[in-house]
Design brief:
Blueprint (H helix, E strand, L loop, with lengths): L6 E4 L5 E4 L1 H8 L2 H21 L6 H31 L5 E4 H23 L7 H35 L15 E4 L2 E4 L3 E7 L2 E6 L2 E5 L3 H7 L5 E5 L2 E4 L3 E6 L5 E5 L4 E4 L1 H16 L9 E2 L3
Parallel strand pairs: 1-3, 11-14
Antiparallel strand pairs: 1-2, 4-5, 6-7, 6-10, 7-8, 9-10, 11-12, 12-13
Pfam families: LytTR
Protein name: LytTR family transcriptional regulator
Organism: Ruegeria pomeroyi
């Protein structure tokens, strides 16, 4: 089944954005989006008051302009939610150019306000010429600020969508941990073997063997338990680095690694190692060919 967002908007600069209810609310309530819509609408409505010679003070004209700008923002917010609701009822959703929505907003807001001015202030401005002048001015300014909206707000919306938390039940993958070994940063996933030899600790990574100052225990604690385990008091090995597991008569294990190195597995840890290896293979977590077990 094809998943289609209920509303698709096409801007003058060629940008396209598909919205559901959540994305529409996010876009329309973004502080910058609110500012652009209210600011542009307020400028036009204030200029219209002066052009029509409405008998109010300049302070009242600015207040009226701000009020009508806020009213237009509410109109666009409600209109977007209505369009999304209608888009859910259709198979392919609703696809509209933003200039058409802007023109609808101008007609639904400026024409009624022109009528109110004419009636309240008893002005002879309820004429086709006055209506055309107001609509053209508002629409021209709208087109300019529409481009600004597309350039500024749409990237913010895309960034906010990318930063959404993962849905419940789908954990976000954790970043690969890194270890600082004697001043060198090493990705934990590259470590294949840690070996303790009396007072010395060696880390095998990327085909290299490094002598480090950290203790064996601290290194083991820092590594991901799903990547490998401590199989002996002196050895930690990555599951993916084990090629073959051979049982020993005393109940311990002999692990043959991919570089043909053989390391011991303590009897006390043999069962846990087998279970971890089997569980990893069954869950498909192994990134390479799973180790081949001998007869246990």
């Amino acid at each position: 089944m094809k998943l289609t967002k209920p509303l698709t908007l096409r801007f003058l600069n060629g940008d396209t954005v598909s919205l559901d209810r959540r994305a529409a609310l996010m876009m329309m309530t973004c502080p910058i989006a609110v500012f652009i819509i209210v600011f542009s609408a307020s400028i036009v409505r204030t200029l219209s008051i002066f052009m029509l010679d409405v008998p109010v003070s300049w302070l009242a004209a600015i207040a009226l302009g701000l009020g009508m700008g806020a009213l237009l923002w509410v109109f666009f917010l409600c209109l977007s939610l209505v369009l999304i609701r209608l888009g859910r009822m259709t198979r392919d959703g609703i696809d509209l150019p933003v200039p058409l929505i802007g023109l609808l907003g101008v007609l639904c807001n400026d024409i009624p306000m022109l009528w109110i001015y004419a009636r309240v202030f008893d002005l002879d401005i309820w004429t086709p010429m006055a209506a055309a002048m107001i609509v053209l001015l508002a629409f021209a300014v709208h087109l300019g600020f529409e481009l600004l909206f597309a350039v500024v707000v749409l990237p913010l919306l895309a960034r906010a969508r990318n930063q959404r938390p993962a849905p419940a039940g789908i954990p976000r993958p954790a970043p690969d941990p890194k270890l600082m070994l004697d001043g060198e940063t090493i990705a934990a996933k590259d470590i294949t073997l840690i070996q303790a030899d009396e007072h010395y600790v060696f880390v095998h990574h990327g085909g290299r063997k490094s002598h480090v100052r950290q203790s064996f225990g601290s290194l083991v604690k820092a590594l991901d338990k799903t990547a490998g385990m401590q199989v002996h008091k002196s050895y930690w090995v990555a599951f993916d680095h084990v090629q073959q597991v051979q049982p020993k008569r005393d109940g311990g294990l002999k692990l043959i690694l991919k570089d043909k190195t053989a390391i011991p597995g303590a009897r006390s840890r043999a069962r846990a190692f087998r279970e971890a290896l089997r569980s990893r293979a069954q869950m498909g977590a192994a990134r390479t060919e799973p180790a081949k077990e001998g007869q246990f």
